[in-house]
From TrEMBL:
<keyword id="KW-0133">Cell shape</keyword>
<dbReference type="GO" id="GO:0008955">
    <property type="term" value="F:peptidoglycan glycosyltransferase activity"/>
</dbReference>
<feature type="transmembrane region" description="Helical">
    <location>
        <begin position="38"/>
        <end position="58"/>
    </location>
</feature>
<dbReference type="GO" id="GO:0051301">
    <property type="term" value="P:cell division"/>
</dbReference>
<protein>
    <recommendedName>
        <fullName>Probable peptidoglycan glycosyltransferase FtsW</fullName>
        <ecNumber>2.4.99.28</ecNumber>
    </recommendedName>
</protein>
<feature type="transmembrane region" description="Helical">
    <location>
        <begin position="182"/>
        <end position="199"/>
    </location>
</feature>
<feature type="transmembrane region" description="Helical">
    <location>
        <begin position="267"/>
        <end position="288"/>
    </location>
</feature>
<dbReference type="InterPro" id="IPR018365">
    <property type="entry name" value="Cell_cycle_FtsW-rel_CS"/>
</dbReference>
<dbReference type="GO" id="GO:0009252">
    <property type="term" value="P:peptidoglycan biosynthetic process"/>
</dbReference>
<dbReference type="InterPro" id="IPR013437">
    <property type="entry name" value="FtsW"/>
</dbReference>
<keyword id="KW-0961">Cell wall biogenesis/degradation</keyword>
<dbReference type="GO" id="GO:0008360">
    <property type="term" value="P:regulation of cell shape"/>
</dbReference>
<comment type="similarity">
    <text>Belongs to the SEDS family. FtsW subfamily.</text>
</comment>
<keyword id="KW-0131">Cell cycle</keyword>
<keyword id="KW-0573">Peptidoglycan synthesis</keyword>
<comment type="pathway">
    <text>Cell wall biogenesis; peptidoglycan biosynthesis.</text>
</comment>
<keyword id="KW-1003">Cell membrane</keyword>
């Protein structure tokens, strides 16, 4: 099982680098006078340190993280709060989501995803049947999730909030919580999301775009329409690797949340399905590993990683395909982002250590 998880992860990683090398070539040359700017940065700041962390963490007994779970969460929340400090926070496109230290920038919300998985796995792992109790289960869980939500809304980073909510609810469910408690929390979350959409015009615009992609095709619906053009241009086998026309300034966020559209344009329906199968294969391997683990802490970490990777992947693919509203959620292992790549690979290192004991 360890070998299968590792091989699938590395194939996903390699596939992502190959796609990024093509998707970022035009924007990299235009903005930084380097065709492979994004590929080189992804390798140097994401993949190489991430692989190092994956190897290191695969050798450390995963139970060590149970003892450190609270400190890890506090550290991640502190980093998340640092984005609001003028001397550290770095803004882009109206959102302050990055921290700049010593010439390097990183996104603390990506670190929070893994920190929250570890903390919730440790916390629920110690509660057994008490998780079904309002006082010991639902109430404190909801308070933690609410605190995280406030920090993310203030940035604002609704895409990450959606993913973290999905991860948290997933772990809460697999820990053995009461279904009625989950439904109550989901109801409150739904009301919160409706309020956020209603209060911010740009979020409401994204819903309108999702309902009717023909609304203002040169404005609020531009990204979705260009994504659909990319996907439609690919056909069954694609226009050929490196031959996308949409990456020539037409498709926004080409190396970020729109990258799946380039996958389908260049590699076709076949390439898109291949990537989906890779995500499903990894999900199957992680769920199977979790089912073979008797230790609840290890089980919940693996399930948390499965929900994170596959949930985020399908949220991204659905949004770019017009099946869900756009939220700016990146595609795991494929989209450009050093912090996201490093943290994902670190999480997979912990999973590999758990899988050795399955």
């Amino acid at each position: 099982m360890v070998k299968s998880i590792l091989i699938t992860t590395l194939i996903l990683l390699l596939f992502g680098l190959i796609v990024l090398s093509s998707a970022g070539i035009v924007e990299g040359h235009k903005k930084f006078d380097s065709a492979y700017y994004y590929l080189n940065r992804q390798l140097l700041l994401g993949v190489l340190p991430g692989l190092g962390l994956m190897f290191l963490l695969s050798k450390i007994d995963y139970k060590f993280w149970k003892k450190m779970s609270l400190l890890i969460l506090i550290g991640a929340l502190f980093l998340l709060a640092m984005v609001f400090m003028p001397s550290f926070g770095q803004g882009l496109k109206g959102a302050t989501r990055w921290i700049s230290l010593g010439g390097f920038s990183f996104q603390p919300s990506e670190i929070l995803k893994l920190a929250l998985i570890i903390y919730l796995a440790a916390w629920f792992g110690n509660r057994d049947e008490r998780i079904k109790n309002w006082t010991y289960g639902m109430a404190p869980f909801f308070l933690v999730l609410s605190f995280v939500a406030v920090l993310l809304v203030l940035q604002p980073d609704i895409g990450t909030l959606v993913v973290i909510t999905l991860i948290s609810i997933g772990i809460y469910f697999f820990a053995g919580s009461e279904i009625k408690h989950i439904l109550i929390i989901l109801s409150v979350i739904a009301v919160g999301f409706v309020a956020m959409i209603w209060l911010e015009p740009y979020r409401f615009d994204r819903i309108k775009t999702f309902i009717d992609p023909n609304t203002d095709t040169r404005g609020i619906s531009y990204q979705l329409n260009q994504s659909l053009i990319s996907i439609g241009s690919g056909g069954i086998f694609g226009v050929g690797f490196g031959k996308s026309t949409q990456k020539f300034g037409f498709l926004p966020e080409v190396v970020h949340d729109s990258i799946f559209a380039i996958v389908v344009e260049e590699l076709g329906f076949v390439g898109g399905i291949f990537l989906v199968i890779l995500f499903l294969t990894l999900a199957f391997l992680l769920v199977r590993t979790a089912n073979n683990i008797s230790d609840k802490f290890g089980k919940l970490i693996v399930m948390g990683m499965a929900v994170w990777i596959t949930g985020q992947a399908f949220l991204n693919i659905s949004a770019i395909s017009g099946l869900a509203p756009l939220t700016g959620i990146p595609l795991p292992f494929v989209s450009y982002g050093g912090t996201a790549m490093m943290v994902l690979l670190a999480g997979m290192g912990i999973v590999l250590n758990i899988a050795k004991r399955a």
